[in-house]
Amino acid sequence: MKIVIIGAVAGGTSAAAKARRNDENAEIKIFDMDYDISYSGCGLPYYIGEEIQDREDLTPRNAEFFKKKYNVDVFRRHEVLNINTEDKALTVKNLDTNDVFTESYDKLVIATGAKSIVPNIPGAENSNVFYLRNVTQADKIKEYIITHKPKSAVIVGTGFIGLEMTENLKNLGIEITLVERLNQVTPGLDSDMAVHVEKYLKSKDINMVLGDSVVELKGEPLVNQVVLQSGKVINSDFVIMSIGVKPNVELAKEAGIELGANGSIKVDTKMMTNIKDVYACGDCAESYSVITKKPLYRPLGSTANKMGRIAGDQVSGGNLEFRGILGTGIFKLFDMTVAQTGLTEREALNEGFETVICHNIKPDKPEYYHGKEMVIKAVADKNTGKLLGVQIVGYTGVDKRVDVFVTAITFGAKVEDLFHLDLAYAPPFSTTKDPVIYTGMILDNAINRGRELITPGELNKLIEKGNDITVIDARVNKQYEEAHVDTAINIPHGQIRKKAEELDKEKVVVTYCNKGVTGNAAQNILINQGFKKVYNISGGHKNYKAQSK
Amino acid sequence: MKIVIIGAVAGGTSAAAKARRNDENAEIKIFDMDYDISYSGCGLPYYIGEEIQDREDLTPRNAEFFKKKYNVDVFRRHEVLNINTEDKALTVKNLDTNDVFTESYDKLVIATGAKSIVPNIPGAENSNVFYLRNVTQADKIKEYIITHKPKSAVIVGTGFIGLEMTENLKNLGIEITLVERLNQVTPGLDSDMAVHVEKYLKSKDINMVLGDSVVELKGEPLVNQVVLQSGKVINSDFVIMSIGVKPNVELAKEAGIELGANGSIKVDTKMMTNIKDVYACGDCAESYSVITKKPLYRPLGSTANKMGRIAGDQVSGGNLEFRGILGTGIFKLFDMTVAQTGLTEREALNEGFETVICHNIKPDKPEYYHGKEMVIKAVADKNTGKLLGVQIVGYTGVDKRVDVFVTAITFGAKVEDLFHLDLAYAPPFSTTKDPVIYTGMILDNAINRGRELITPGELNKLIEKGNDITVIDARVNKQYEEAHVDTAINIPHGQIRKKAEELDKEKVVVTYCNKGVTGNAAQNILINQGFKKVYNISGGHKNYKAQSK
């Protein structure tokens, strides 16, 4: 048995290691074009930001390691030129010697990864326009910073890498301007959650240009001006392009291997392609959604590891199968943490779900124990009561909550299940009712107990349409005076029991407080008094206000 | 509808609030003997340790709050003397005026909580022997510390409260001696996990006396000597007794209400007692295990809140039902975090499960990102492959992992399910494969893929019995020379492929490395080479060494 793997980063090396664990006798070879192998792509921004001091921390495993530990031969700087699936053979070129040779295989694993998208604009390939994807490129950025001592940078794209680079370059004292094509940062989030990230970026003195695109990178030999669609010109000492990645599939495509989502290699749950004995895994391979079961392309190191292990198991006689992903993502932005899993509201609506949305604003720990507020936006399916996805923006404890949600959604949790979780409670770690539990309670009340929620966006639409609704601000008068929903009347919570008698019970009523809890209490009182249709604003005035940029 | 609740801390106030949310018109009254209501019992150690500065942070909600927000009348300093379940009436005494009156109810909720166990030994009720259970007692401890400036304290009992008090008193500069009846600290943990806590306590200069009991507290008017069963005498400026709690059930018992586990009030999933219209919730009520479905008494604020909400829902027309607990617990000990959920190995064996045990030693984050090692002991059911429980000792990220395990176990996760979780990965939060995922992989390999584990305890038993086994230390020679399992031979991992030929394939072989990963690699090689029975030491030499106190 001869197993050949193309690519020696996360997917390829995981496949090799797993195959060896299963089969002591197989011959296992890996070819990789690059010099560095098995590196942590996700660590690159922190290497540039000097959070990771030692380059070897990024590439702890070299070819020798794989030989010694797994009896796997890794050939670096070897480019596979061609896959002949009929003869089961590869044409391989040694990039150092230019030797070209043929290599046969019994089982082939393609783990060619992904590459940065390079826009088709003037200057895109200039030497101070960087595309962070591997250690070599990270080295170049580090070297540029050391040599040129740049004072400013434009970062194009506000996905995870763009914002991680924002933090790391800012920490080096470089002034940052973010350019984003969309009208919001972090395209993966719903816009009503992205506003929190934008506000925080402003507080960190990060310049942002939203809803604009780069059309030209000017300057010779080095780019020093970024020209936008709007005509705006930004002076900049260098540019980081982080507008996304695309799978490396040229080799597979030429070999007649079928492609799928985003042009990635189509695979089944065994990671097998349409061609027998040819497998694919990692950033070049297609994934699928645990929720919708539809193809999904979300390249990430943790997924590449899973896929690699499965491919390695399959080519060595195992039966491990891929179960899909939720599209979980997380990133740190200075002291902020942003995380998401499952479907956003936008995605859920596109998939045809009838959604129920809540914005739950809660501290991760008691305030007396330095708790910091997070906003959890949860999306549920009104018809099944199942949780579809969450987005969380906060400071501490965000990673915990998203992982609990990941686990719950994976097991098909309904919103009412969350309340019953016996989560670990002590003041240094959580509130008595964890934010996850509150999220479940709010959604359960909305879906199963007639305590309906309305998002700020939905409320504004109702008002704009001229619907005749009563909006009640249930906060104390002082808070109402400071700022309130335009059409709202002020009935502090303590007075609602009495004053409700003066209101029209047939009209639609919307209640709100600061974050949602007292608004819900007011809603309860009105419903119990016979009001026909009462909504509470999801996330209260705090969320409403955040939406009015 | 008149709802009367006895007790105004976690369970009682939760019940009242939920009942009001459901029913605007019910009359709701709460009686409580104490002056302070609705306080955070779990915050008390941190109030004493001055982590919580403001007493009001512990008791944020007073009677006025409940009247204003929920239209609930809270009567403090009112003792219920008697429950007459036939007439549906209570006899109540106002402790300030000594007035006694009768109060009728339609629905009654008993939420009388629990009290500290006071041992039957001389001096147990002396004024500087403290039982931390409510704010008044916390005040007394604080006052004692301020007035007497004690230099030393003996803490009896090493459960959560005992160890939380250890941290908080030590932080005030007080020398601590812990006295524990058992031969280990933290009785809730298996002894092979408690060793890590003991080692850490030593590093923090905490004195420990294990396997000994207090027989007398000497000194007048203040205790200054603690006399132990062994004859040992410890000089001490005061004593904290934290040897457990028992439910306050005298009132219920006299009223003919049936009792259950640990003498707590027996309730069904609706929190109803054996008597119609009488409910119980919180620390006085019985819970049950999600796993075994058997009664369980684990009083905790988070559970009291859940039970209270359910009782409140049921007495006001709702249908919320209790789903049991996993017995999740967590505590902070200086920089250490100790958490557990589900069954320990000891409990699982007592329940008759055929267990598979793993000790997974992993950093919570990449080491280059300040990751700190945690030990996860997981207990699985060999026959169903289901996860039964975990115990985790570590520094950062422990609370996250336990909550993910809680969620997985609640949904009936099998060990092989954990690998597939799409947990959030970025270097500041996790390793590419999260410790939870590794735990699942190790257990899956052990249960479903013939990669069996052996615990240090089991290995020692085999050796003591004189079984003829080959023990292979797969670490480099230098590590072997420093310390190794007594009967082990040293075959570094890189040489196992060759040297295996010289070994007897029919004999039982035990492999190990430092933490388990390379030991598993060695195990794979041997199994693939035809060895009949190969175990890998769970947690490797690091775990083995930790067990030899």
From TrEMBL, chains A, B:
GO terms for molecular function: CoA-disulfide reductase (NADPH) activity. This is Coenzyme A disulfide reductase. Belongs to the class-III pyridine nucleotide-disulfide oxidoreductase family. Its EC number is 1.8.1.14. The keyword Flavoprotein applies. The lineage of its organism: Bacteria, Bacillati, Bacillota, Clostridia, Eubacteriales. Residues 465-549 form the Rhodanese domain. Keywords: FAD, Flavoprotein, Oxidoreductase, Redox-active center.
